[in-house]
Amino acid sequence: MHELSLALAVLDQIEVAVQGDAAGRQEPAAKVQTIVLRHGPLAGVCRDAFQSAFELAASGTRAEGAELKFLDAPVAMRCDACSYITQAERVVYECGQCGSKNVRLSGGSEFMLEEIEVL
Amino acid sequence: MCGTCGCTPKTEHQHSDESKHEHSHGESHSHEPGHSHVHAGQGGSRLIEVRQSILSENDRLAAQIRHAFDHMGITCINIMSSPGSGKTTLLRKTLEALAQEIPMGVIVGDQKTEIDSERLRGTGAPVVQIETGELCHLDATHINGAVKKAITETTRLLFIENIGNLICPASFDLGEHARVALFSVTEGEEKPLKYPSLYSRVDLVVMTKVDLVPVLDFDMATAKRNIGQVCPSAKVIDVSAKSGQGLEEWYGFLRESTVDRSHHHHHHP
């Protein structure tokens, strides 16, 4: 629920990536076309709120107008007993393979900047 | 909806369960700047790989605050609950009971007034009030601004009494080492199920006002089952600040939490 703060953080990361990419070229990329984010349901981030916040924050920057693409990071529980990873819509404390309750969260709370497409 | 953190959907959509289960305070993977992989995209564009977790400014600051607490040997506890669950009363009892034993400090947040801080003063522990105005939660910036007035060189335990709110505070790391939720028996047993963002990420749930149980229809077993469903790792204790029941267990939790941090670097998964 602090999507604006996250949007500003993503813009900072994009700027670092663009400047890093610019080393060895004449100029940093002028425009960011696409931003790919990996997002899980347990990240505490609402995609729509992030979209709105990002549009606000990106205004006037090289990322203005960029398309946001979200890759799903599904909820995943790893079983201590049999190592099986159960994927589900919601957290379920039961292994899908052996039924053990000794499972721990191994995915679903990611919120990552995967890659950007620049021109 | 809160004007600060409201979600404004533009289209028909479904929200998935956004409860957090890890007791993480922000994942930190990092690449060195400039160390990125580039591929050709379509129409002359380039793809720049980043593969980096997005840490908000709040998470960054909270991590710094926690690091500073570790160096100073301070354990910080974030106390959250709905309004009226008994946070201030429990803290008052705690400050009185442990005054000679553990040097403590308090930061308390409310929309308005100094009422809570005034109730907590006079036991020897410094108390700082933050009035957040229209903001519905405390964040790391508040703590960063207030902490110097709430601690001394000998402080070992710092309480943050968060704003009475079961939603927004859950998302804001304040630099704490432990998160405690108060759950009063005058609330519904289903509270943990309805507010998973907060209840899934707590170390301890304190059932409060348990002296009232005989005159209520509150089903304690169901309430605890619900806590267990949403946060299996949470400890649960029953407390009545009024009768004194369970207070020693609460103090025991505080004593255990207050390890000598100056020699112990706190790790987060």
Describe the protein:
The complex is a heterodimer of chains A (119) and B (269). Chain A has helices at residues 3-22, 47-58, and strands at 32-39, 67-72, 75-79, 85-88, 103-107, 111-118. Chain A has 119 residues and is of the alpha+beta class. Chain A has a 3-stranded mixed beta sheet with strand order 2-1-6, covered by helices on one side. Chain A has a 3-stranded antiparallel beta sheet with strand order 4-3-5, with no helix packed on it. The mean pLDDT of chain A is 91. Chain B is of the alpha/beta class and 269 residues long. Chain B has 8 helices and 9 strands. In chain B, the strands form 2 sheets. In chain B, strands 5-4-6-3-7-8-9 form a 7-stranded parallel beta sheet, with helices on both faces. In chain B, strand 8, helix 7 (220-230) and strand 9 form a beta-alpha-beta unit. In chain B, helix 1 runs parallel beside helix 4.
Helix content of chain B: 25-40%
Query: Mind telling me the C-alpha Rg of chain A?
Result: 18 Å
In total, how many beta strands of chain A? 6
SSE topology string of chain A = HEHEEEEE
Helix content of chain A: 25-40%
- Measured distance between first and last alpha carbons of chain B: 33 Å
Widest sheet of chain B: strand order? 5-4-6-3-7-8-9
The fraction of residues in strands of chain A falls at 25-35%
pLDDT < 50 stretches of chain A: none
* Main β sheet profile of chain A: 3 strands, mixed
The largest inter-chain interface, given as chain pair and residues per side, is:
A-B, 46 and 50 residues
Q: How would you write the strand order of the largest sheet of chain A? A: 2-1-6
The general outline of chain A is elongated
Supply the number of helical segments of chain B. Answer: 8
Query: What does the largest sheet of chain B look like?
Result: 7 strands, parallel
Tell me, rounded to a whole number, the average pLDDT of chain B. Answer: 85
Structural class based on helices, strands and sheet pairing of chain B: alpha/beta
Q: Give the total of beta strands of chain B.
A: 9
